[in-house]
Amino acid sequence: GPCTECSCSSGKETDKNTSNTKKKENGDQSFIPKIFFGTRTHKQISQITRELKRTAYSSVPMTILSSRDYTCIHPVVSSCVSNRNEMCVELLEGKHGKSCLYYHGVHKLSEHHALQSAHRMYHAWDIEDLVSLGKKLHACAYFAARELMVGADIVFCPYNYLLDPQIRESMEINLKGQVVILDEAHNIEDCARESVSYGVTESQLRAAQEELDFMVNNNIRQKDHEALRAVCCSLT
Length: 236
Known about the structure:
By secondary structure, the chain is an alpha/beta fold. The chain has helices at residues 7-25, 42-52, 68-71, 75-79, 84-93, 106-118, 127-137, 141-148, 160-163, 165-170, 188-195, 202-217, 222-235; strands at residues 35-39, 62-64, 154-158, 179-182. The protein is globular.
């Protein structure tokens, strides 16, 4: 029969009450954390998802967060090497009277995965699989991956998506109460250092200094630009 003579019975009641409180706070639904799996490179994500396919958890809803460099399928933006992010934002804002056809088709990708999940045909996938499907459905793989994060149980991404607060904010990642796994965590120190580092050439510094000279000489926010010019001078 049930134990009533020792503290374990009261402990069980406490646990039960706590879980009930949590359910009430969340509208009768207990909070289920997501697993955020961070890796050093996108290539490692491919290896992990390949292994995931071989396990009993292959049908678990998932997504992979990555940059536009890997997921953009717009013919003009994807062919640009330097400023894909800026070009994508301009298209979304319709700055030149044009919009992104693929962005407006994002729902096709997310609905496809939702349909697979409902029919229990869901399987672990890789970035290349998502991009290939995006091209077939004329749907943006970059924003589809972000939409899939809402219903995903496991989210794969590079380290900096979890470490860099600016990226977390832009990707709407909230790690409070979630499970975070860092693959090969000994690389975290280098990754953290890189995320707050910036490389600049001497010619770039001199060009910036010339522009700041122009600003100061023409009394354009002179106080601010003099301080910036002093920084450039000290670095050169």
